[in-house]
Structure formats: structure tokens, C-alpha cells
Amino acid sequence: MAVNNPYQAYRQQQVFTLSQEKLVLMLYDGALRFCRLGVSCLEKKDYAGVNNNLLRAQDIIKELMITLNHDAGEIASNLHRLYDFMLWHLIQANLKKDAKMINDVIDILQHLRDAWEEAARIYRTHDYRTRTGMDRQG
Question: How many Cα atoms are found within 13 Å in the side-chain-facing hemisphere of 41?
């Protein structure tokens, strides 16, 4: 895929070189942004804008779902159920034009985002590879 716009190429390269932790944070931030824009559009009675923004938020949540590591066990299963709930909630919010339902999803996304950011911070400040013996050569 060729990118002719230098800014677009730079942004694309940034995404390719981000850590997994930062990519997940970006996904959460994007979903939050589109949900908030959906609420804003709803307040203005811009229903096409509501639809567009909620669909984009749904796409991001789907991406979070498909990138889950199900080998992680119960936490991955619980996250999958939360993502599924948020998708259903956003679909219903879009159909009913219900700001409260969108705000419910925003609350969940914000809590997940904050928890992920904290977990990434803790991971970065500890050397788990040394403690688990992952740095030993076989």
C-alpha cells in the first residue's frame, strides 16, 4: 500500500512502531472520542453524525475483541463479554438515539482505558523478564 502524503506516511510509521500497550490505549482513546462525538451530535440532532461516530466506535471495539489473547484465560473471556455488551449497547443507543446508553459505554471504556494505562505503567516500571527467567538463554 503506497502512501503519497508525507504526513500520512509519517503517521502510519508511528502506528507500526508503537508498543502493543500504546496501541491498545489509542484504540480506547479513539472509541471514547467517537462515543463522545456521538453524544455531541445527538445533542445537535445530527443523526447522521450520531450514526457515523457510533459505527466508528463499534469498529474499534470489534478490533479490541479480535485482538484479545484468549490464552490469557478468564480475563480475556470477561473482556470479550464486556466488548460484546458495549457493541450491543451502542447499536441500541444508535437505534433509540439514547445518550444515556452511549454514556454508559463511555463509562465502561474509560474504566478499561484507565486500568490498561495503569497496568502498562506497572509493567514498564518492573523487569518481569528477569523475574520470570524469560531472559535466560536455553
Answer: 19
Torsion-angle region of residue 2: left (phi > 0), alpha (psi -120 to 50) or beta? Answer: beta
Cα separation, 106 vs 42, in Å, equals 15
Residues 6 or more apart whose CB falls under 8 angstroms from that of 15 comprise: 23, 26
User: Could you give the 3-state DSSP secondary structure of residue 137?
Assistant: coil
Question: In Å, what is the CA distance from 123 to each residue of 117, 118, 131?
Answer: 10, 9, 12
Classify residue 127 by its DSSP letter: -
Sequence-separated (6 or more) residues with CB below 8 Å from residue 62:
83, 87
pTM of the model: 0.78
pLDDT in tens, 46-61: 999 999 999 999 999 9
Under CATH, what is the fold of the domain 19-121?
Four Helix Bundle (Hemerythrin (Met), subunit A) (1.20.120)
